[in-house]
Write a structure and sequence with these properties.
Length: about 450
């Protein structure tokens, strides 16, 4: 391992790429601590130090921003607007034929879809920054706090001050998007994924130390041990795949013979990645968000439906919340896999190039067989996602950890997935130069 790291340092091109990536990551983390204009930094830090936190309503965005959301920094929105816009553009392929046509055009079509994603990211940045500032001005950002400081986070309520804050946060989102693309072009790994990885990893020490302070050092060590087991299980499942063998018939073109080789179609157990967890979390936040804005400001009792939502859909240790969360993840996994993997398209491409699955006729029978396999492989994948996503909620109910428990949910899936892909890229570049990679 140490020899592999030494080879990386001795390779000028790879060393330069890793250094550039680390420099961009350092700038990204620095921007997470620079407050936006007209934000009372001291009051924000007092609310955070008092563990007032969120009620789970802004947990996902705060996780992906590395804690910058609650600090109302220039990078408060983090990479979340880009993630949302990417998912929306991907889903619109099913609804808008033009998007699907662009996707099939190759590099030129992908460039246009990327441009649409950028425009949508800026639009979502304006919308989300406006919402965040409105919530902060109303004193609902730290809803569980009764401290006066948490009701006075914004020092200037004038329209020009609000506009400047919206512009600053939206520009921060655009800058993050640009830095992610710079990493992809000049650094190592996927830029956007690495920025998300950095945001989540930056919260690991704080989350683990809060468990040690709230419980005991023995519980802290037990959590570390359980976390290592969970991480090993996630690595195992993320690398698992069902390989469907494919053979290509030999064909003569002039005097040359083409085809005749054997390959396979890899169908991963978890084809949906972390997207179903994001979908389910966002959908469960909507009732709580609507209920929060319908909370009476005069101190009177809230309506019955608002009280029910606050009692059942805002607390992660509620059994009904857990059951709905699990069911939504399983449903969204099947939905997302169905729109991203088209068995008919794969079968048509195989038929076009003379490929076939042994024992299965080409064309429609191949598509039906692929759909059969995909449906059954997705079942354990969806159950796995649901169980991993419930780990922070179970930790909240048993160990007393907060909902940002690091070894579970979207955090562990992203950490492991991005880590594996980045290590594979470094390994492939080492093999190109030294004929010996980072992995054995």
């Amino acid at each position: 391992m140490f020899r592999a790291v030494a080879r990386i340092m001795r390779t000028p091109d790879l060393r330069r790429k890793i250094g550039f990536t680390l420099g961009i990551i350092a700038l990204f983390r620095l921007g997470s601590f620079i407050p936006s204009p007209f934000v009372d930094y001291q009051n924000v830090q007092l609310c955070l130090a008092g563990n007032q936190g969120t009620s789970g309503l802004y947990e996902l965005v705060n996780l992906f921003s590395g804690g910058a959301l609650l600090q109302l920094s220039v990078f408060a929105l983090g990479i979340m607007p880009y993630i949302t816009s990417s998912i929306i553009v991907q889903l619109l392929r099913v609804v808008i034929p033009h998007f699907d046509t662009l996707y099939k055009e190759g590099q030129s079509g992908q460039a246009k879809l990327t441009q649409y994603t950028r425009y949508l990211t800026i639009a979502l940045g304006i919308l989300q920054s406006t919402t965040l500032i409105t919530v902060a001005r109303s004193g609902a950002l730290f809803a569980g706090s009764g401290a006066a400081e948490c009701q006075q986070l914004i020092t200037n309520d004038a329209w020009y001050a609000v506009m400047l804050m919206v512009i600053t946060m939206t520009a921060g989102t655009g800058l993050i998007m640009w830095m992610g693309e710079l990493i992809t072009e000049r650094g190592i790994g996927n830029g956007m994924s690495l920025l998300i990885f950095t945001s989540i990893a930056a919260r690991f020490p704080t989350a683990l130390w809060s468990i040690a302070q709230a419980r005991s050092f023995e519980i802290f060590l037990m959590v570390i041990a359980v976390g290592l087991v969970i991480m090993a299980a996630v690595v195992f499942v993320e690398q698992s795949q069902r390989r469907i063998p494919v053979q290509y018939a030999k064909r003569m073109v002039g005097r040359r013979t083409y085809g005749g080789n054997n390959t396979y179609i890899p169908i991963k157990v978890n084809m949906a990645g972390v997207v179903p967890v994001i979908f389910a979390s966002s959908l469960l936040y909507l009732p709580a968000l609507v209920a929060q804005f319908n909370q009476p400001s005069d101190g009177t009792a809230p309506p019955a439906w608002v009280a029910w939502v606050q009692a059942n859909l805002t607390s992660g240790d509620n059994p009904l919340y857990m059951a709905l969360y699990f069911a939504l993840i399983v449903g969204f996994t099947y939905f997302y896999v169905a729109i991203t993997f088209n068995p008919e398209e794969v079968a048509d491409n195989m038929k076009k190039y003379g490929g076939f699955i042994p024992g299965i006729r080409a064309g429609r029978p191949t598509a039906e067989y692929l759909d059969y396999v995909l449906t059954r492989v997705t079942l354990p994948g969806s159950l796995y996602l649901g169980i991993i996503a419930l780990i922070p909620l179970i930790a909240l109910a048993t160990v007393g950890a907060n909902q940002n428990f690091p070894f579970g949910g979207a955090s562990i899936l992203i950490i492991v997935g991005v880590g594996l892909e980045t290590v594979k890229q470094i390994d492939s570049q080492l093999q190109q130069r030294h004929y010996e990679g980072l992995l054995k």
